[in-house]
């Protein structure tokens, strides 16, 4: 027997087996079965459709697209009284071939937040169909879903994102089709947390409710099953790489308070270096963090650090200005006094030696010359400009040493109370 004949016989056998399976499955359906007509439970009650889903993997949380990519097992069950089950009795689950779904009425459920949904497939689609006697169908499938998840980053990196999963019927109102949770409503695999290094993951499911996302709907309310995927960002790494280093650079700028004001190059270089480092951190973090038109928590923190370093630089600028004023006032006072002393101590030119000698021996009357300006005020003791400026310099120095760290401490209390609440 050649290879071509063997292949033909193999394909024929597979087709016969498939046809046999399909024939066995189709025996459950009456000859007049119409898959476009929904089943009608006795008594006119709504069709009860049980739903549940379990999240197997979370592949990606994309904050730029505001979406979550995950895989999940989706299950639904409903009663089909038109099935011809024959001798099938008992409580056990009877597995059926998936070809039955091509000929069976299926609830038209969909997930509102889905951007993209794909069925897993290797040789056949990864799905299963079971019959729970006498007439309950259980369908299960593995799906890869990208969910739209509106996100807010005002508290980044302390943000908590809540992604909704809303399952409902597309065309049937709650009077015709009503959802209910199955025994296991919604859960996630225990390994999901390990798949998300940046987030803590957990699920919160809600009771079945009527349609609530539109206020002025022109059509009848539908039954809704909703669950929340909660993603709480882990911020320990941000504390170690952003918050602690930036606070230390601010403290390094404060070390200039304990350097003499006369050391202008060293004190200025210390403050400017700290300022440029914090600004560089702000620029680098801005490229990695989500782009928003509003301030995030990390932006507020880095802006606060920059402002406090700038305050330190301004404080030193004020001190240098006061010192320059001191030197100018000293020159205004001392130079006129030196000039006056020089005029009184210099002998007059001309005249005889005797006249100069008598003038030197006889006491001179008090000079009636007048010194104007700041020198006169300084000489009269009315005020002392250099001493007063020294006092101002001491006040500014103490205000910087105490006031700027105190502002940072108060801002820390407010910041952490607001963003960690």
UniProtKB/TrEMBL annotation:
Residues 1-22 form the signal peptide. This is Gamma-aminobutyric acid receptor subunit rho-1-like 1. Residues 342-382 are annotated as: Disordered. Keywords: Membrane, Receptor, Signal, Transmembrane, Transmembrane helix. The lineage of its organism: Eukaryota, Metazoa, Ecdysozoa, Arthropoda, Crustacea. Residues 26-211 form the Neurotransmitter-gated ion-channel ligand-binding domain. Residues 242-329 form the Neurotransmitter-gated ion-channel transmembrane domain. It is a multi-pass membrane protein. The chain crosses the membrane at residues 235-257, 269-285, 300-322, 402-419. Its main location: membrane. GO terms for cellular component: membrane. InterPro entries: Neur_chan_lig-bd, Neur_channel, Neurotrans-gated_channel_TM, Neurotransmitter_ion_chnl_CS. Residues 346-361 have a biased composition (Polar residues). It is found in: Membrane. GO terms for molecular function: extracellular ligand-gated monoatomic ion channel activity; transmembrane signaling receptor activity.
């Amino acid at each position: 027997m050649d290879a071509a004949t063997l292949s033909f016989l193999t394909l024929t056998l597979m087709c016969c087996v498939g046809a046999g399976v399909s024939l066995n499955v189709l025996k459950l359906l009456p000859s007049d079965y119409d898959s476009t007509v929904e089943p009608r439970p006795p008594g006119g009650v709504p069709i009860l459709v049980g739903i549940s889903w379990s999240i197997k993997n979370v592949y990606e949380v994309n904050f730029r697209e505001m979406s979550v990519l995950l895989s999940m097992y989706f299950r639904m069950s409903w009663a089909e009284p038109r099935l011809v089950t024959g001798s099938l009795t008992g409580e056990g689950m009877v597995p059926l071939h998936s070809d039955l779904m091509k000929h069976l009425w299926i609830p038209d459920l969909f997930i509102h937040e889905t951007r993209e949904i794909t069925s897993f497939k290797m040789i056949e689609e990864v799905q299963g169909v079971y019959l729970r006697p006498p007439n309950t169908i259980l369908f299960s499938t593995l799906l890869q879903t990208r969910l739209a998840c509106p996100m807010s980053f005002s508290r980044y990196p302390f943000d908590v994102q809540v992604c909704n999963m809303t399952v409902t019927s597309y065309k049937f109102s709650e009077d015709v089709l009503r959802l209910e949770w199955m025994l296991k409503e919604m859960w996630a695999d225990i390994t999901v947390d390990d798949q998300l290094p940046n987030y803590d993951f957990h699920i919160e499911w809600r009771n079945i409710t009527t349609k609530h996302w539109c206020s002025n709907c022109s059509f009848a309310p539908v039954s809704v099953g909703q669950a929340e995927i909660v993603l709480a960002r882990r911020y320990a790494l941000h504390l170690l790489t952003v918050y602690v280093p930036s606070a230390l650079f601010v403290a390094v700028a404060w070390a200039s308070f304990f350097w003499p004001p006369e050391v202008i190059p060293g004190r200025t270089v210390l403050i400017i270096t700290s300022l440029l480092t914090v600004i560089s951190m702000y620029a680098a973090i801005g490229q990695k963090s989500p782009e928003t038109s509003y301030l995030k928590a990390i932006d507020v923190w880095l802006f606060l650090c920059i402002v406090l370093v700038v305050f330190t630089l301004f404080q030193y600028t004020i001190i240098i200005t006061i010192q320059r004023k001191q030197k100018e006032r000293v020159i205004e006072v001392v130079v006129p006094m030196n000039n006056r002393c020089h005029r009184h101590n210099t002998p007059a030119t001309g005249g005889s030696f005797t006249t100069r000698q008598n003038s030197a021996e006889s006491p001179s009357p008090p000079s009636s010359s007048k010194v104007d300006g700041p020198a006169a005020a300084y000489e009269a003791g009315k005020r002392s400009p250099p001493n007063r400026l020294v006092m101002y310099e001491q006040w500014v120095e103490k205000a910087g040493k105490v006031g700027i760290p105190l502002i940072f401490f108060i801002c820390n209390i407010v910041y952490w109370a607001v963003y960690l609440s």
